Amino acid sequence: MTATTLTLPSPAKLNLMLHILGRREDGYHELQTLFQFLDYGDELTFAVRDDGVIQLHTEFEGVPHDSNLIVRAAKKLQAQSGCSLGIDIWIDKILPMGGGIGGGSSNAATTLLGLNHLWQLGWDHDRLATLGLTLGADVPVFVRGHAAFAEGVGEKLTPEYPEEPWYVVLVPQVSVSTAEIFSDPLLTRNSPPIKVRPVPKGNSRNDCLPVVARRYPEVRNALNLLGKFTEAKLTGTGSCVFGGFPSKAEADKVSALLTETLTGFVAKGSNVSMLHRKLQSLL
Ligand SMILES: C[C@](O)(CO)[C@H](O)COP(=O)(O)OP(=O)(O)OC[C@H]1O[C@@H](n2ccc(N)nc2=O)[C@H](O)[C@@H]1O
Ligand SMILES: Nc1ncnc2c1ncn2[C@@H]1O[C@H](COP(=O)(O)OP(=O)(O)OP(=O)(O)O)[C@@H](O)[C@H]1O
Q: Cα(208)–Cα(187) distance, rounded to whole angstroms?
């Protein structure tokens, strides 16, 4: 008998590099980016209900119930699968919103995979990723669960195997709107496509960084401070800034110094998402 309740992780991601190649007719941008997961994230708990109702019990400041990506993901999956079951959902939210570490997208993917399991739909990852893309450009990589080189708007994924260092992630206390950064006239949108894999060294820049740093002094400050210890990078459109270290001890040492004045955390990079490791252990 399949369980009717389930608790699953919803990990963060980093963009280890991000190049913008151009802008499409629909306003979305053609990207090349390298995604890696962190062993750090939110936790969602699901309990099946038989009346078809989808209810998220945790309140989010500034996000109405029906706009929450968790609820939108659940409703889409229910409608497209024709499932008559419903779900109660709770979330322990630790990922910052508008931090560029993919909180909302990851929550949507965890919901799709969790409900596919609990509702026994038997959808494969291709089908779930296609539905996920309609919720956000970053959802498919969380559905697939492997570090990946992404092209298109982020949906064409090729598995990658970057090193898995320990990261210090700084969380500047500003929420950056992805749409706002992508509509900035100063954004560089003409990076030449990378044609070889893995991404050659020297290509780790994030094309969004100059625009984000210009608009947000808090992000500039975080980049400068972390940059005293290692190469400091921006993930996605920010606000979070990260740098890799060969050991937890070194990352902890730098984090202890920086988190006296800034918010941040230490987490291990991971090429297989902790969500997929947990799901695998259930089979
Ligand atoms: C920047 C990244 O975080 C890199 O991982 C993602 O590409 C953004 O993914 P996301 O947050 O899931 O983005 P979405 O919710 O799909 O899009 C938010 C807004 O960002 C802009 N956007 C997003 C992705 C993309 N490739 N081009 C864009 O121009 C669009 O204006 C869109 O309205
Ligand atoms: N479950 C959710 N978790 C976080 N944000 C959500 C959620 N549902 C809806 N949102 C909305 O989506 C916006 C972007 O949230 P998210 O945490 O995904 O941003 P982000 O970290 O910049 O992500 P990305 O790296 O994908 O751009 C939030 O500001 C919020 O209004």
A: 7
Atom of ligand 1 nearest to the CA of 15: 5
Peptide bond connecting 159 to the previous residue in cis, omega within 30 degrees of 0: no
Q: What's the pTM value of the predicted model, to 2 decimals? A: 0.95
Catalytic site includes residue 156: no
- The residues of the chain scoring below 70 in pLDDT are 1-2
Query: Rounded to whole angstroms, how far apart are CA atoms 145 and 95?
Result: 18
Give pLDDT tens digits for 132-180: 999 999 999 999 999 999 999 888 999 999 999 999 999 999 989 999 9
Q: Which of 76, 88, 93, 138 does the annotation list as catalytic?
A: 138
Whole-number Å distance, alpha carbon 199 to ligand 2 midpoint, is 27
Q: What are the distances in angstroms from CA 142 to CA 13, 112, 132, 155, 192?
A: 8, 10, 9, 11, 26
| Domains in the chain, CATH or no CATH each | 5-160 (3.30.230.10), 166-270 (3.30.70.890)
Tell me the one-letter amino acid at 256: A
Residue 220, SS3 per DSSP: helix
Output the ligand 1 site: residues, CB below 6 A.
15, 27-29, 31, 33, 100, 105, 136-138, 153-154, 178-179, 182, 236-237
Identify the burial level of 24 via C-beta atoms within 10 angstroms of its C-beta, where 0-12 means exposed, 13-18 middle and 19 or more buried: exposed
**What would you measure as the largest C-alpha separation in the chain, in angstroms?**
56
Closest atom, ligand 2, to C-alpha of 69: 8
The yes-or-no answer on residue 76 being catalytic is no
Q: Whose CA is nearest to atom 4 of ligand 1?
A: 236
Q: What ipTM was assigned to the predicted interfaces of this complex?
A: 0.93
